[in-house]
Amino acid sequence: MHESRSMNRKADTATVSVGLGARAYDILIGPGLIVRAGAEIAARLPGTRAAVITDDNVASAHLPVLQESLGAVGIDSVTVQVRPGERSKSFETLQEAVDAILAARLERRDTIIALGGGVVGDLAGFVASIVRRGMNFVQVPTSLLAQVDSSVGGKTGINTAHGKNLVGAFHQPRLVLADTAALDTLPEREFRAGYAEVVKYGLINQPDFFAWLEQNWREVFSGGSARIEAIARSCRAKAETVERDERETGERALLNLGHTFGHALEAATGYDGARLVHGEGVAIGMALAHRFSARMNLASPDDAARVESHLRAVGLPTSPKDIAGDLPGADALLSYIAQDKKVSRGALTFILTRGIGQAFIAKDVPASEVHAFLKEFERP
Ligand code: NAD
Ligand code: ZN
């Protein structure tokens, strides 16, 4: 049996191993991992010093516990605290973090620890990839989205005026510590948004996982073993995809299910998190991808209805009409999609589906069909 397919349980901690040869690493999932972080890091990276990169929200809830845990095993650390939010994935913040780490005289064998959501993880990972041509990197993801998605797979980076995530590097962590109890301080809306990415793994290629979520989502939201199980299954799904296609030359693109429509809606709302956060865009995008697939006679409309009904049950939006305020029409949405994607001779690449758990990469989707579909959601 392949490494990553095993999911060992030590008491209430699940371990998912990411099998990338010499760069293989473990993802530990369970409550109390921030308390244990120092010991887990010291066991794998003896003698290391550390820089913790975090944001103000996460620092007030979890930084003291992490610092104490590092101190208890003699790991000397400095902290770089950034402002919460997407704007911290910038050249300015990158420079501040790099300067602080160099000022603290950290060396290549030392460790950058990301304590936070996907913003902190992407920024800190990129810092780790460039300072002294590559330092050790440990992820301590604290949002559900970061625990099931952004902390796994080694993509790091920042945003530029030309778009999101356009500057970055592939840099795998040495260890991921997903403390499921840390999610208790996460705002409910952020938890729900991250849950959209959990559903995504079921919809891509695990119909049994989707069915399990339909039955068990309340327990996933309330915490306990179902939450650990959902996160571990998600990490395993992403790890398996990354093992087969680390640099996204093929099937890693399936992880973008719902993201083409979702990114267009995020752009159309000016990345205003008060109106739409990423996971909500993904939820709408997945609902649309299933409806569009049904419209193209690729999948049954019953599957699209089932997806929508689950997303609605947990309180996620499923239609552009669920977004408050004005939205641009089909023309503008299509042009956002075209910016996000390569368009060749009027055809778009989309992740479509033949049914729940049967997503595939469709390379020749007519832009005219997408346009007609989006027209249906225009408000009078
Ligand atoms: P985020 O990091 O902005 O976190 C969301 C909010 O929750 C922030 O305000 C943060 O301060 C707060 N927060 C996080 N953990 C908390 C906790 N435990 N308690 C209280 N507050 C907490 O956003 P996100 O949704 O975690 O990540 C989104 C980012 O991830 C985007 O920049 C996206 O591009 C990136 N991403 C990267 C990958 C990848 O493969 N590298 C994959 C998906 C997304
Ligand atoms: Zn996403």
Regions with pLDDT < 50 over 5+ consecutive residues?
A: 1-9
User: Taking strands numbered 1, 2, ... along the chain, how are they ordered across the largest sheet?
Assistant: 1-2-3-10-7-6-4-5
Largest pleated sheet: 8 strands, mixed
Bound molecules: nicotinamide-adenine-dinucleotide, zinc ion
Question: Which helices and strands occur, and which strands form pairs?
Answer:
Blueprint: E1 7-10, E2 13-18, E3 25-30, H1 33-44, E4 50-55, H2 56-72, E5 77-82, H3 91-103, E6 111-116, H4 118-130, E7 136-141, H5 144-150, E8 155-160, E9 163-170, E10 175-179, H6 188-205, H7 207-222, H8 225-244, H9 259-268, H10 278-295, H11 301-313, H12 330-340, E11 347-353, E12 359-366, H13 367-375
Parallel strand pairs: 3-10, 4-5, 4-6, 6-7, 7-10
Antiparallel strand pairs: 1-2, 2-3, 8-9, 11-12
Helix pairs in contact: 1-2, 3-4, 5-6, 5-8, 6-7, 6-8, 6-10, 7-8, 9-10, 9-12, 10-11, 12-13
The chain binds nicotinamide-adenine-dinucleotide and zinc ion.
